[in-house]
Amino acid sequence: MMRTRMLSKDEEATAAGGEENEVRREDQEKINRFSRLHQRESVLEELLQGKNKDKEDLEEVSMELELADEDELVPYKIGDTFFQLPLAEAQSLLSTSTETIDSEVAKMEESLGEVRDELQQLKVALYARFGRSINLEV
User: What is the pTM of this model?
Assistant: First the structure.
């Protein structure tokens, strides 16, 4: 089990180079930007998890439809209503839905990557300025 201890004020001042860094306006703007990006990252991760779950569900339904009879009408949900559709039409709509979710997931992953890149740049800049006197690990 790891033990951690808090630094005393003297140890913290020594670790930070012995001088207090004054927070300038641009530093505060970077800190605020980091906070907003971190919140956005959290929201994007949640949305991405939801889309991935939807994608898995669609793939599971698609596999189930492969076992259905070609002559059967299949219930297909559009909005809040279920419609009885021929198997081929349901599979076509399912394929379209899967492609749509795939493109949405790709866009979200790209956006999440951009947010993480900017967060990393802000971390580097803020740690370079403040050293151990700032904690950006979440």
Answer: 0.74
